[in-house]
Amino acid sequence: MFSHSEENYLKVIHKLAFSNSKNVSTNLIANELQTKASSVTDMLKKLADKKLVNYEKYRGVSLTKKGELIAVNVVRKHRLWEVFLVDTLKFNWDEVHDVAEQLEHIKSDQLIDRLDTFLNYPTIDPHGDPIPKKNGEIPFNNSILLSEGITNKIYKVSCVKDNSKSFLQFLDKHEITINSELTIVDKFDFDDSMTVKLIGGHSIILSNKVSTNVFVNLK
């Protein structure tokens, strides 16, 4: 059994490893968790003693096979609970993250298996993130960032990179959700903003900050 804090550290290392080809640095973890680097170092030593991470001072950290399985299992539970909260309890997609952060630490495998069955084995959460399978396998996602798209092609929104309440509320305000279809009308070199038009809907100018936080697939 592992503490909530230990599971949170493993989950964060797993998340950061996706965007870092090398070991994850202590400072990156500290920034993500909004804590001191010295506190991170202390926790990494504990996790290394439990054979959950490979850690060497000044060289960063990576998950062991055991640590990876635990992290992916926590992610799986988090995303399943988000689906349950949105689909069954009718929470909005901007309301579920903090609640799922609490529910993800429930230890009962039987409960999570029944939850998965009840939800009919969903493959993505309300934000479009893939839900890991029980064996730890994570479905492949070949989406691109909206900022990388080209004009006059139709794209479908597949995922959001930023799950913050303010960003999700911004998307809601402009009627952009998972599976929304849109086309890029124009792109502006000055500030990397773009004009997009929702299929069957309105046009909107999106900043680079928005377009680099939305993933799409070519339709």
TrEMBL record:
<dbReference type="Pfam" id="PF01325">
    <property type="entry name" value="Fe_dep_repress"/>
</dbReference>
<dbReference type="InterPro" id="IPR036390">
    <property type="entry name" value="WH_DNA-bd_sf"/>
</dbReference>
<dbReference type="Pfam" id="PF02742">
    <property type="entry name" value="Fe_dep_repr_C"/>
</dbReference>
<dbReference type="GO" id="GO:0003700">
    <property type="term" value="F:DNA-binding transcription factor activity"/>
</dbReference>
<keyword id="KW-0805">Transcription regulation</keyword>
<dbReference type="InterPro" id="IPR022687">
    <property type="entry name" value="HTH_DTXR"/>
</dbReference>
<dbReference type="GO" id="GO:0046983">
    <property type="term" value="F:protein dimerization activity"/>
</dbReference>
<protein>
    <recommendedName>
        <fullName>Transcriptional regulator MntR</fullName>
    </recommendedName>
</protein>
<dbReference type="Pfam" id="PF04023">
    <property type="entry name" value="FeoA"/>
</dbReference>
<comment type="function">
    <text>In the presence of manganese, represses expression of mntH and mntS. Up-regulates expression of mntP.</text>
</comment>
<keyword id="KW-0804">Transcription</keyword>
<dbReference type="InterPro" id="IPR036421">
    <property type="entry name" value="Fe_dep_repressor_sf"/>
</dbReference>
<dbReference type="GO" id="GO:0046914">
    <property type="term" value="F:transition metal ion binding"/>
</dbReference>
<feature type="domain" description="HTH dtxR-type">
    <location>
        <begin position="1"/>
        <end position="64"/>
    </location>
</feature>
<dbReference type="InterPro" id="IPR007167">
    <property type="entry name" value="Fe-transptr_FeoA-like"/>
</dbReference>
<dbReference type="InterPro" id="IPR038157">
    <property type="entry name" value="FeoA_core_dom"/>
</dbReference>
<dbReference type="InterPro" id="IPR050536">
    <property type="entry name" value="DtxR_MntR_Metal-Reg"/>
</dbReference>
<dbReference type="InterPro" id="IPR022689">
    <property type="entry name" value="Iron_dep_repressor"/>
</dbReference>
<comment type="similarity">
    <text>Belongs to the DtxR/MntR family.</text>
</comment>
<dbReference type="InterPro" id="IPR036388">
    <property type="entry name" value="WH-like_DNA-bd_sf"/>
</dbReference>
<dbReference type="GO" id="GO:0003677">
    <property type="term" value="F:DNA binding"/>
</dbReference>
<keyword id="KW-0238">DNA-binding</keyword>
<dbReference type="InterPro" id="IPR001367">
    <property type="entry name" value="Fe_dep_repressor"/>
</dbReference>
